[in-house]
Amino acid sequence: MATQDRAIRTRQGILAAAAKVFEERGYQSATIAEILTAAGVTKGALYFHFQSKEHLAQGVLRAQNDERLVVPDRVSKIQQLVDIVMLHAYRLQTDPMVRASVRLTLDELAQDLDRSGPFRIWSQVGQELLAKAQAQGELLPHVVPAETTAVLVGSFGGVQAMSHVMTDYQDLGQRISDLLRHVLPSVVLSSVLASLDLSPGRGPAVYEELVASALESESVAVS
Hints:
- The chain has 223 residues and is mainly alpha-helical.
- It is built from 11 helices and no strands.
- The chain has helices at residues 2-25, 32-39, 43-49, 53-61, 77-94, 96-105, 117-135, 145-167, 172-183, 190-193, 202-222.
- The mean pLDDT is 92.
């Protein structure tokens, strides 16, 4: 068990170092040597976990979708979608790995790297939730879930990029709140819209909820 824990910590340390280098240098300019130096591990240790720079980058890209931070089912599927979006915005503000992952996703110089994974995952999540919202009567009649998801995913990318340049993400919660308040009235029934929490503080609140739930689960498992 100790050996497995050590291997997990080593892998996480290598990914964190790779994220830092990718964020500072960009995918194309980053080198394995720089990542080795940042991680403080041997080449053998790195290649035990990751076969190449591309595999490292894919590991960083997957950091946007942390299975430990999954928003639970909500009665309102639109609120669930909002919570996922606001949580992602909060993690962009607070988690260096997520920040590096998003910047890598939008790195236009990384032309030989498949950066479509995060877009596909977010699109799938959005379409599934909007389809469920549609089935339970939360959406306006004209809404096509795939189209709405594409607008939301693309808009989030632009808004977060603007927030990064303007304030280093300090105002991202407010900007995403503004985005949702402008887009959702054209998608959601007014009765549903009135019940939604679209406030900038929603992201931190959801994060605290998930952390508390995880701690409770760990406590139960130990006892």
